[in-house]
Amino acid sequence: MDLATALGVIVGFVVIIGTIAYESHGSMGIFFNIPAIAIVGGGTTCATMIHFSMRQFLGVVSVVKKTLVVKIAPPQDSIQKMVNYAAINRRDGALALEQEIPKIRDPFLSKGLQMLVDGADEHHIQDLLGQEIQYMEERHSMGKKILDFMGASAPSFAMVGTLIGLVSMLSKMENPDEIGKGMATALVCTFYGALIANLVFIPMGGKLGQYSKAEKMSMEMIKEGVCAIAKGDNPTLVGEKMQIFLSTKHREAIKAKV
Amino acid sequence: MDLATALGVIVGFVVIIGTIAYESHGSMGIFFNIPAIAIVGGGTTCATMIHFSMRQFLGVVSVVKKTLVVKIAPPQDSIQKMVNYAAINRRDGALALEQEIPKIRDPFLSKGLQMLVDGADEHHIQDLLGQEIQYMEERHSMGKKILDFMGASAPSFAMVGTLIGLVSMLSKMENPDEIGKGMATALVCTFYGALIANLVFIPMGGKLGQYSKAEKMSMEMIKEGVCAIAKGDNPTLVGEKMQIFLSTKHREAIKAKV
Amino acid sequence: MDLATALGVIVGFVVIIGTIAYESHGSMGIFFNIPAIAIVGGGTTCATMIHFSMRQFLGVVSVVKKTLVVKIAPPQDSIQKMVNYAAINRRDGALALEQEIPKIRDPFLSKGLQMLVDGADEHHIQDLLGQEIQYMEERHSMGKKILDFMGASAPSFAMVGTLIGLVSMLSKMENPDEIGKGMATALVCTFYGALIANLVFIPMGGKLGQYSKAEKMSMEMIKEGVCAIAKGDNPTLVGEKMQIFLSTKHREAIKAKV
Amino acid sequence: MDLATALGVIVGFVVIIGTIAYESHGSMGIFFNIPAIAIVGGGTTCATMIHFSMRQFLGVVSVVKKTLVVKIAPPQDSIQKMVNYAAINRRDGALALEQEIPKIRDPFLSKGLQMLVDGADEHHIQDLLGQEIQYMEERHSMGKKILDFMGASAPSFAMVGTLIGLVSMLSKMENPDEIGKGMATALVCTFYGALIANLVFIPMGGKLGQYSKAEKMSMEMIKEGVCAIAKGDNPTLVGEKMQIFLSTKHREAIKAKV
Amino acid sequence: MDLATALGVIVGFVVIIGTIAYESHGSMGIFFNIPAIAIVGGGTTCATMIHFSMRQFLGVVSVVKKTLVVKIAPPQDSIQKMVNYAAINRRDGALALEQEIPKIRDPFLSKGLQMLVDGADEHHIQDLLGQEIQYMEERHSMGKKILDFMGASAPSFAMVGTLIGLVSMLSKMENPDEIGKGMATALVCTFYGALIANLVFIPMGGKLGQYSKAEKMSMEMIKEGVCAIAKGDNPTLVGEKMQIFLSTKHREAIKAKV
After folding, report:
1. Which pLDDT does position D256 carry in this prediction?
2. Which residues of chain B have pLDDT under 70?
3. Is B9 in Cβ contact with A50 (below 8 Å)?
4. Cα(C86)–Cα(C66) distance, rounded to whole angstroms?
5. pTM for the full model?
6. Which of A226, B89, D236, E46 could form a disulfide with A112 if both were Cys (CB 3.0 to 4.6 A apart)?
7. Phi, psi of C105, rounded to the nearest 5 degrees
8. In 3-state terms, what secondary structure has residue B1?
9. Which residues in B lie closer than 8 A to residue A135 (C-beta atoms)?
10. Which residues, in sequence order, are CB contacts of A3 under 8 Å at separation 6+?
11. B172 touching C (Cβ < 8 Å)
């Protein structure tokens, strides 16, 4: 679970609700408005369904969930594991790696190891794992595109909702005392749109992009390591080839540990 | 018929009209405003006609209609068919494919098959079908450009209409009771522009882009398959060459079926 | 004369003026406002003069006029003509083409033919006509850039004008009855800016871009044809080389006619 | 001095001030507002100082001044001069060019000539003058970037100023008669920001870009000519090599003159 | 410490506070509003935490601090130092450089020198220092991305805050005298967002970009110099190789000094 995301969402909503409670002196009822939720939520959802295909639209939920829940293994761990596998491969041959596979939770790594066990050659592994990485990137970039579209769509439907409220209110302005209340109700819609876009859709799209970059680097490192093992490199060389992906600071930390 | 698009448009309008009915307590008359429709619809149409040529402007309707109605065949079906054709070609020669053509509904596939029957060589097929794909892409990207322009133009003409309403109302503000009604009428125009742009033009432009990408992949697969048959590849190889276009998940599903 | 542009501008203004007449119940005087015209027109013109050079600024008028008035010959006609010239060249030699030149209205085509008569070789023609095409493109893209800038500038100066009106009105708000009229006058300026930008400048810039693309294709086709004649290709080959620029549909229409 | 720029700025301000005089019926005092000038001018200047370095910030003034005052020599003159130098070089040797240098006002041309006198070879001249051109372009593009930033910053600080005015006015709204005047004062700030950005910063940034392109072409032509002289080309060839930079129209005008 | 940044921030806030003091006739209390600070500050911080990872978010502070405090050595000094090192290397061998390292404050330069002392060859130095430069650029560009995101996020949350204030105020508009005060309080939020974005986040992001470019040039020069020493170039050549990075003006100033 990504801490910054959870913290950001929770603290963000606490700040917003706290301010609402303070500003409205406790009478927060007006900020809870079913038609406003229907317009902003419904409109954005429908526009997203029109823009994308049914499958892409339903896919975004699982992509986002995965981003929030799945933790990318720290690069140091991947290197350490791969160096171990290289040692096993050297000592006992590729078949001995088979008993390591059930212990692995990352399906990408276990796929790579399975190919080693099956005796696939370096270029075949390179191709297949590379395709897997590209496919992951496409799914993530589609998710980011959908979230960005929702972030642009929500404020627009919020405006549609506010306009409906304003027109309704203005068209039967008999009682001037009701003007204030009518405008307040209309503006709640704008508030919903601005809040959901800026606290959820836009930053979640950004996080998905960051997550995709980090996962790509992690997968590229594993691919590099598996290929090195397939080529028969010794454990030290496998580790060095994977370290090229790390920044200087990280690399020194690893050296210190090893 | 694309389900997500149909559902999105229908549910979207139901949500909007439902909110209007709820907010206006049933007196929805003010939301139906002929001059506002004239300004937003007429202005956007005229600006689009000035921006594009007459032929491009009229073409967008047919492109959109096709996007909504024509269903792209699932890649698995295309592969299955092509593997069959390859088997027929192997067994009975290219001429035997002629009786398959009348059964095909996709004009691109039937064109490819006709070329096989006519004995065209691989490079010729590659060139001609490639050109066909490029031409389809250009038509679709022009349609997307027009829809995007309409999505930007509609809110602008909505503002023009609202300004006309406001200026008219303000210039003869004798009866303060009429201010509210006048402003409501003026704002209906802004509402139309925001609604049509965000629920129709912009997401439809996006869907056209998605559709174009999917159709391109489908056509590229068919081109690849026809070329493989022309080269005399065996049915298995034809199927494998076409599967390169599919993601890993899809590919496994196909293997499982075959 | 481009029909879509003329129709778009005329119908567009008819719709706008019709709505004004309807909304203002005939008292349209307030919508005709000299200071507003001065600010929007003058401001946009001055900013454009500062942004571009004097020569570029004056050039945009002629480019736009040409776009509206000059009709690009249909590609079929160009091919037909060029096939004829190729036949004459074959039968009677290049000098016989000289008597065709006075009949030609397109200066680019007549320049190409003159080079054939003068006996210029293929590469020289390619270079010179290519340069001519590039020069045309630069002029058109500068025109598009100026129109786009005017489309962005007009609403800004409209806002400047509206602000002048609002400040003046608010600073001497003795008679509350005059507030409405003052605001109406101020908003007319915003109306002018939005209208001229969205119905004239922005779509005209777009049309210029479309026109430039079409003219480029037409000129490239002529260049290709003239070069083929200079190389001594037979009429059929000249026609085929030019047809490469056309889409499949067009090509079949030509075949049907020939 | 660039005529279009001068005319644009002067006529632009005359139109604005004229409209103000007309709209405010002579009482223009409210449009002259020291705090508004302080916020828009001071805020924009400070933000620019934070964004860029001190040296870049001070450099923009000299770049803009140069753009307005220095006139780029017409290409025909450069060609004529260079043809003369080539003739002198041929007749009397490179050293005879030394007495031409003091007559030259353009430092770039005199640098090129000095290199010829010093006997530098073609490639050395190419490198050094090319570097000089690149350095000029960088300075100009930095100037354009600063002006564009100021054009975006001015309206933002104008909004800040207007908000200060509005909040102050609203927080002590005892006398309703003063509301109008307070709002007018607040809006003057928005007016300043929109005016200065759209009549000065944005179009001046555009002009700097145009000027930079024109100066680059002029310098490239001189570089080409000096290199041709260094290579020992005859005067006619020198002239022809420089004419390649000119459009067809210009070239014919030169031919007619020569 | 960068003078322009410090001056810009301080003068900027002095101008803003001065205008507030003048406009509000001393009663500045309304401009200090805890809930507004909570919404703008808290919302922007939370959205940034969601968008980026925890480590990136915390890293931006140190990057910005470094930009403000660390001064990039003038290129002339770097050249002078490197020429000295080259002379020492020539005279006394690479090991004699070891006693120079403790005197150096720039960690990049001292790393380069250490590699010389260790006898690393040219290509190894090129690779390692090049990687170091790339890593610095990535950190800076991430910092710029975060600041730009905050510059876009702050005005959005300011709007959210203003909407909360407006809705609260409008929903219990019993006392018309309080409307003004309520609106003033609501607008203070918008003011905060516009001010912090335009005076801090956006220009600081720009400055970080400028700083990154300058630091990159300085590091590239040092890399070039260290490589030249490793290759055994004489001091004059080392100086010349480094001067290629400088503009003509700078170069002449250095020649004059040397």
Report:
1. 59
2. 1, 26, 173-177, 247-258
3. yes
4. 30
5. 0.89
6. A226
7. -95, -25
8. coil
9. 247-248
10. E54
11. yes
Query: Which of C168, C190, C189 minimizes the C-alpha distance to C179?
Result: C168
Q: What is the amino acid identity at position C232? A: G
Given a cut of 80, whether residue D68 has pLDDT beyond it is: no
Query: Which chains have at least 3 CB atom pairs separated by less than 8 Å from chain B?
Result: A, C
Cα dist from D225 to D237, D253, D257, whole Å: 9, 19, 19
**Subunits close to D (at least 3 CB pairs below 8 A):** C, E
Would an 8 Å CB–CB cutoff place A258 in contact with chain E? Answer: no
Q: Report which of D156, B26, C224 is spatially closest to residue E191, judged by C-alpha positions.
A: D156
Contacts of A125 (CB under 8 A, 6+ apart): A112, A115, A116, A223, A226, A227, A230
- Among C39, C44, C45, C51, the strongest candidate for a mutation testing the D interface, having the largest count of D CBs within 10 A, is C51
CB within 8 Å of B231: residues ≥ 6 apart = B122
Chain B 23-52, residues with CB within 8 Å of chain A CB atoms: 23-25, 27, 30-31
Whether residues B11 and A161 touch (CB distance < 8 A) is answered with: no
The Cα E87–Cα E120 span in angstroms is 18
- The DSSP letter of residue A246 is S
Q: Give the span between the Cα atoms of C9 and B50, in whole angstroms.
A: 7
Task: Say if the Cβ atoms of A194 and E159 lie within 8 Å.
Answer: yes
Q: Which residue of D has its CA nearest to C53?
A: D4
Q: Do E167 and A31 touch (CB under 8 A)?
A: yes
Q: Determine the Cα–Cα distance for residues C47 and E225; give it in Å rounded to an integer.
A: 49
Provide the pLDDT confidence category of residue C249 given band limits of 50, 70 and 90: low
Average pLDDT, chain E: 87
User: Which residue in B9, B23, B199 has the most chain A C-beta atoms within 10 A of its own C-beta, making it the best mutation to test that interface?
Assistant: B23
Per-residue pLDDT of chain A (258 residues; tens, 9 = 90+): 577 888 899 999 999 999 998 888 767 888 998 889 999 999 999 999 999 988 888 888 888 887 777 777 788 888 888 999 999 988 888 888 888 888 888 888 988 999 889 888 888 899 889 988 988 888 899 999 999 999 999 999 999 999 999 998 888 766 666 778 888 889 999 999 999 999 999 999 999 998 898 889 899 999 999 999 998 888 888 888 888 887 666 666 666 655
**C-beta atoms of A19 and E161 within 8 A:** yes
Closest CA to E46 of A15, C196, D2, C33: A15
Residue type for position A159: M
Q: Does D166 touch chain E (CB under 8 A)?
A: yes
CA D124/CA D129 separation, integer angstroms: 9
Q: What is the 3-state secondary structure (H, E, C) of A72-114?
A: CCCHHHHHHHHHHHHHHHHHHCHHHHHHHHHHCCCHHHHHHHH
Residues in A closer than 8 angstroms to E39, CB to CB, are 15-16, 19
Do D and B count as touching (3 or more CB pairs closer than 8 A)?
no
Do residues E117 and E100 touch, judged by C-beta distance below 8 A? no
- Cβ pair C197:B168 closer than 8 A: no
C192 inside 8 A of chain D by CB: no
Residue pair C67/C2 in contact by the 8 Å Cβ criterion: yes
Compute the distance between CA of residue E240 and CA of residue E255 in angstroms, rounded to an integer.
10
| CA–CA dist A190, B90 (Å, integer) | 65
**Helices (H), ranges, D93-234:** 107-117, 122-171, 177-196, 202-231
pLDDT of C30: 86
Distance CA D48, CA D161 (A): 17
Contact (CB<8Å) E203/D47: yes
CB contact, 8 Å: B196 with chain A?
A: no
Is C198 part of the contact surface with chain B (CB cutoff 8 Å)?
yes
